[in-house]
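Re: the 339-residue chain
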Amino acid sequence: MAWRNGHAVRVLRFAWLPLLDGCSQKGYWLLHPKGVIARTEWHTTVLDVVVMGVVVLVAGGLVVAFLWRYRAGNTLRRYDPTFTASLVLEILVWGVPLLVVGYLSYFSVKSVFATNPYDPLSLRHALVRPHQADQGLAHRASPARARTTVPGAQEAQPLHVEVVTTDWQWVFIYPQQGIATVDDLVVPVGARVKFDLTSATVVNDFFIPELVGEIDIMPGMRTKQAMIANDTGVYHGYSDDFSGGGFSWMGFDVRVTDHAEFRKWVRRVRAAPDVLSYARFGQIARPTINVAQRVSYFSQVQKGLFDHVIERVMAGKVYRTPLAMTENMTKPMKVRLIP
């Protein structure tokens, strides 16, 4: 009885944890997608987990049932030493797994095309007007169309953002607006956002869990990504690939605003005194630990800066990090520390 009471106490101790889900979304970004791409990926994940969970439960239940049915001492069941094969069992043993694998493969392929960074089909479906969207069961089950219709989504020219990673900051260039920021990404809600990404130093991962999946950013190369944000708000982006001493502070805010507020923000940035030339970028790209994640704004950007960064990296341009920096974080030597 004492063991049972202790076991019950341990169970009740953790029974309240699911109730915390509605209290805060911090740390559970993947479970609360707010973008078309992230929602499609989450839908595919749920589908895979549910299907495989059913398989595991059924298989486990059958194992328990067989152990009980054919246990030693069960005299109600007759042992038949002449049994060699069963067509029904063969169909079940081979047919069911093949159906499950085929089902998951079908939706996995659809999900790959739906979230393809260079041409995500889910963004196309998100721009379909709600009354044109198929609301049938097949529509809802498809990862490519998993609840992705965004009311008010803009068919107009997409917002183009060029992303350059450094050690350890993010530079966001808006070529259409002629502005740039450091560690601050602002986009309008419901608008297609197309990213061109490269690195001035080492490989990093661009990841906004609530909006879009991670993708590698390689030095001297151009990577593409795209997204649509469904809801306004502030989301967290970061690098998902360890890249040195300042990696812990290599994050940025993603602010999704309405279109009017986005235009006001662009006008405010255009009033900033600083200009982002390649020489100024060279200062930003030096190893910099932005502890407080302070943002910077640039009212003008040198034309072709993104391509020039790629060309310089391919030509061998590097920004060396003092080796002793990771050994003594309080005195990063020549590395600039932004308090």
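The chain has two domains: 26-145, 159-338.
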